Amino acid sequence: MDTLLLTNIHKSFDKRILLQNVEFECKVGQIIGVLGRNGCGKSTLLKMIFGTEKADTIGIKINSKVYTPKEIIPSRRIGYLPQVTFLPKDIMVRDIISVFFPNGELQDLIFYAPKVSSFETTKVGNLSLGQLRYLELLLMGNLPHTFLLLDEPFSMIEPLYKEVIKEFLIELKNSKGIILTDHYYNDVLEITTKNYVITDAQIVPILDKADLVFYDYLRSYE
Ligand SMILES: Nc1ncnc2c1ncn2[C@@H]1O[C@H](COP(=O)(O)OP(=O)(O)OP(=O)(O)O)[C@@H](O)[C@H]1O
After folding, report:
1. In whole angstroms, what is the distance from residue 147 CA to residue 189 CA?
2. Is this prediction's pTM over 0.90?
3. Is 37 inside any structural domain?
4. Is residue 20 part of a domain?
5. Measuring from atom 3 of ligand 1, which residue has the nearest CA?
6. N or C: which end of the chain has fewer CB within 10 A?
7. What residue owns the CA closest to ligand 1's atom 28?
């Protein structure tokens, strides 16, 4: 089973230590949730792993192979879904699918995915937020990358598409390892296999919502 091992991650801005000695791993078959209060460094962590934000130090290993952050994008081993959409607005969904996947069989995987037929002739700019996020995830999830970093896949998404996205991610973990971060902790905890919270610049494993209260992310829960 492919394993992404992240070690010795440090990041500071000016005098503020954002992340210190962060270490965790993600295997194919796992969905790892990273929770934490606004500004604790979740997005920065994902960007440092992807190589688009400079870390003070970071160790990245996939199985026995060591990668520098600069090697991550060209290696196509790790994909990254940013918080803000990356698709051009003026293009029709079916055209963007063929841009991503010139191969007909791969195209079909997307065209026949649940719900896609209901918006394939819509322009990207006219999609609902849920349709757009789902499309982005379908495109990324069908690329060959073994690991995916997802920054807020549930934020602002209508309930119907949240469910479709969760089903897709649960299926996807059969072939990939996924690290995701979001404030919609109920949705995160529903699909993750392991969870962490970032607190005081450290990453700490958590088991349940009681731990989230303990680490001051939640005040209370039902
Ligand atoms: N280039 C930078 N220079 C200085 N500070 C920065 C820089 N980039 C990010 N920060 C700060 O680092 C902190 C972490 O930001 P980040 O976006 O990673 O947090 P987050 O946990 O993803 O927050 P949210 O939950 O609000 O998305 C924030 O306080 C942010 O202002």
Report:
1. 19
2. yes
3. yes
4. no
5. 13
6. C
7. 39
